[in-house]
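User: Can you recover a sequence for this backbone? Please restate the input before giving your answer.

Assistant: Of course. Working from this structure:
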């Protein structure tokens, strides 16, 4: 790495499990801020893009950079060899699976007319992957970085609470979750507190009742 820029291959970026897929956390690794940029890798038959619809306004462009993928967009399915571009507008279902071993799909996303505001889900996925492999120190370092970057953003504290809940550290989990609740003036977190399985290790603790409004 030289000052001001970095050159690396997608194979050099450590992948992390996320929603049944293997995420290559490009944005987190490079500290890229102008847009959402990540990649996904899988062997034949494996899931590349987790099934989902993007929020209103968020557009995504996928590029198959290696191998071959099968995309499902809306109700259509298409073969996508290396070099294929797939554009998906907001609120349209999409997913993709690998048709060859080592297939990689690169994804770019953003909303027209809005500055990109990273929520940190990709960094969180990497932290979870570290934790699952016993690298708790590295995982907590990522969570601390996310909080430092967006100290007034409730989802970051919520995710930190989920992380500590899964790591078996209830006291730290409740500390983060209380801060998340304080920052969430609109009550958007309520549904997550009610149904998120990541918080199951805390549900029998009497302290959890304060989050069920």
């Amino acid at each position: 790495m030289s000052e001001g820029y970095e050159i690396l291959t997608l194979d050099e970026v450590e992948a992390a499990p996320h929603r049944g897929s293997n995420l290559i956390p490009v944005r987190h690794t490079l500290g890229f801020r102008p847009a959402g940029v990540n990649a996904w890798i899988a062997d034949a038959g494996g899931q590349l893009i987790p099934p989902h619809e993007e929020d209103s306004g968020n557009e995504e462009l996928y590029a198959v950079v290696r191998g071959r993928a099968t995309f499902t967009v809306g109700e259509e399915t298409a073969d996508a060899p290396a070099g294929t571009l797939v554009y998906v507008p907001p609120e349209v279902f999409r997913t993709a699976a690998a048709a060859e071993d080592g297939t990689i799909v690169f994804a770019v996303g953003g909303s027209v007319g809005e500055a990109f505001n990273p929520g940190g889900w990709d960094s969180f996925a990497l932290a979870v992957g570290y934790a699952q492999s016993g690298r708790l120190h590295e995982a907590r370092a990522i969570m601390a970085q996310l909080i430092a970057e967006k100290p007034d953003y409730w989802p970051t504290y919520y995710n930190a609470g989920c992380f500590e809940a899964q790591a078996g550290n209830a006291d730290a989990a409740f500390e983060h979750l209380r801060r998340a609740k304080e920052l969430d003036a609109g009550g958007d977190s309520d549904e997550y507190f009610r149904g998120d399985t990541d918080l199951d290790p805390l549900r029998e603790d009497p302290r959890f009742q304060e989050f069920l409004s």
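That completes the design. The chain has two domains: 10-111, 123-211.
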